[in-house]
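Comment thread on ticket #2218

A.B. wrote:
> Attaching the input chain for the structure job we discussed in standup.
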Amino acid sequence: MRNFLRNQKHNVIFACVFVLFTVFTLLYVFVIPRKSKSAPIESERTFFFATAAPVVNSETAMHEPSGETPASGETPASEEPDITPAPTEETQTATPESSGTPEPTLTPSPTPEPTPTATPEPTAPPTPSPTPSKFTDGEVQSGEDYYIDANINIKITTYRYLDTDVHVAEIYLRTAEYFRTAFAKDTFGRNYKEYTSKIAKDNDAIFAINGDYYGARNKGYVIRNGKLYRDSSAGRDCLAVMTDGSMKIVKENRISAKDLLDQGCWQAFTFGPGLVIDGAVAVDKNDEVKAHLESNPRTAIAMLEPLHFLCIVSDGRTEVNAGLTLYELAGFLLEHGAVQAYNLDGGGSSSMYFMGRIVNQPTSYGTTIEERGVSDIVYFK
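C.D. wrote:
> Ran it. Output below, let me know if you need it in another format.
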């Protein structure tokens, strides 16, 4: 039994020696550089020597950096590679660059430009300006009852309403600057009067109606073409036309003329009353003085939307034309889409001018068909 164990021990030792010999032989043949082999690859030498790095001949190292193969026909400086301790971090230096011609850097191929995609048209924000098709590119188009250019569009229609001819001018403006006013004799003050047609012609107006006859009163806000002329309150409804083309009706005792101007008031009139306010009739059949309850020629202005207006003149005081009360006029304006509507001076002052002629039949003092002198007009040019 003892002999058996001794033999087994010898066999194990023999097997271990054989395996080590075989491994050493394989490493020697395939790893350790020979004279007939190419120069060793540094990474392979490092792998074989666990405790030491190979020594590279200083002359060779300057010309053959790690990882490169000597030129064809050259042999290593000696049969066996020299070995030197691996450099520490303190002594390690950068590997010298090869003196050979560097491989050219590949030029990156240009990135192809992306195929442009169609940009969707941006959604236009809401704007008070009328549709551009309401205007021309600059040429003037006109006829007996219409006028269109690059900034103004006017269409006149006459309606028969409650036994009365009602003349309606529907007006689109590109901006509020085309909503203008003018004084008789081009002068602000009391007792200055001229016909609507005369003031309109003097200012090259395309269309005009009479204003609020500010010259008949000492009080009431007067703001014209952005300038404040009178700031004393009459306590009435005041019509303010703003620079953005909108209209609002305010009480004079609730806001000053200066505040209105600071808010962007372009024109301010004091006559009234307000006929339609915020889309609702603002007058009652029985809440006005006797003169307002009677049927008369009327002048009014209304806004359907910013920069979109109606100018109204009704006939009256004749056998053919009965005239309208303020309540009837308010109802007519509401039917035609008015959001804000305001009564201007009426009676014998009511007059509508278009391209050199008077459209309605003004009744001067109720006796003759002719114009009466007024102190101011609203016009478009």
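A.B. wrote:
> Thanks. Noting for the ticket: Residues 2-84 form one domain.
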